Automatic annotation (TrEMBL):
UniProt protein name: Septin 12
UniProt entry tagged with the keyword GTP-binding: yes
Low complexity biased stretches: 6-18
Gene Ontology MF annotations: GTP binding
Broad class of the protein's primary localization: cytoplasm
SUPFAM superfamilies xref list: P-loop containing nucleoside triphosphate hydrolases
Organism: Theropithecus gelada
Xref: Pfam families: Septin
Compartments in which it is found: Cytoplasm
Domain of life where this protein originates: Eukaryota
Length: 312
């Protein structure tokens, strides 16, 4: 059966809403605010986990983009000209590193998809393979599309290309992150609307520093000058980094766990009722339509297994 017909749309599920019970009047402090300190101490001890999968044709700079994103040598790519043949089949490659900043540790797992779409040529819009892939992927993970090597386009070409991609996403019902149905309040709606208007982000990757006006900047050196990665006048890489790390990282993890993983888990549980009964069979009642679209009411990024508390 077609997974597209069986997998519920992420937006059919809703995350746990804020309690609506009216507050109780307190006679004095009891130390509830100390919970925040406890959570911080626990988080500092345990660290965080984050999973990212990068997808795109060979030579688009996926490895450089990941290295730029975390300002680390997370991924090593084969330099051009070494005679390494392109992969003939799609094989997933993953690397894991621990990155530490000001005492906060992040266990980062990056998965690459070499060979994806290398044999298809369509530079004007989303390719048929892209559309099919994104339609399936957006029901399983959070998808954040980008325009790679944006420095090869003029500003006018970049905007025209962005509008074509946005139109393709709407036409084919591809719901990318941040999903509109998950805006919890007016502040979320304002912030996420600005981000949605800029998606796909036009990015330029660079993992080397150059001296510009007496300061070191990440950038790419060309015969016309230095393309500064973190300069919004040059590209939108700061927007991508803010979305994935500074402002929405925990939200990415929450949606993956509470929505994507729960939908996947319910589907697999329902599939188990179609299997022959054997030793150790547990008779689970089939989920109702309401259960299919409502995640468990607790919060704990990517993938079909529960690395969620540990998401692209």
């Amino acid at each position: 059966m077609d997974p597209l017909r069986r997998s519920p749309s992420p937006c059919l599920s809703s995350r746990p809403s804020s309690p609506s019970t009216p507050p109780c009047e307190m006679l004095g402090p009891v130390g509830i605010e100390a919970v925040l300190d406890q959570l911080k101490i626990k988080a500092m001890k345990m660290g965080f986990e984050f999973n990212i999968m990068v997808v795109g044709q060979s030579g688009l700079g996926k490895s450089t983009m990941v290295n730029t994103l975390f300002k680390s040598k997370v991924w090593k790519s084969n330099p051009p000209g070494l005679g390494v043949p392109p992969p003939q089949t799609l094989q997933l490659h993953s690397v894991t590193h621990v990155i530490e900043e000001k005492g906060v540790k992040l266990k980062l797992t990056v998965t690459d998809t070499p060979g994806f779409g290398d044999q298809i040529n369509n530079d004007n819009c989303l390719r048929p393979l892209d559309i099919e892939f994104l339609q399936r992927l957006c029901r399983t993970v959070n998808v954040v599309p980008v325009i790679a090597r944006a420095d090869s386009l003029t500003m006018e070409e970049r905007e025209a290309f962005r509008r074509r991609i946005q139109q393709n996403l709407r036409t084919h019902c591809i719901d990318v992150y941040p999903q509109m149905c998950f805006d919890e309040d007016i502040n979320d709606r304002i912030l996420n609307s600005k981000l949605r208007d800029r998606i796909p982000f036009a990015v330029v990757g660079a993992d080397q520093e150059h001296l510009v006006n007496g300061r070191c900047v990440l950038g790419r050196k060309t015969k016309w000058g230095i393309i500064e990665v973190e300069n919004m006048a040059h590209c939108e890489f700061p927007l991508l980094r803010d979305l994935l790390i500074r402002s929405h990282l925990q939200d990415l993890k929450d949606i993956t766990h509470n929505v994507h993983y729960e939908n996947y888990r319910v589907i697999r549980l329902n599939e188990s009722h179609l299997l022959p009964r054997g030793p150790g069979w547990v008779n689970l009642a089939p989920a109702s339509p309401g259960q299919l679209t409502t995640p468990w009411p607790f919060k704990v990024c990517r993938g079909a297994h529960d690395d969620s508390d540990d998401e692209f």
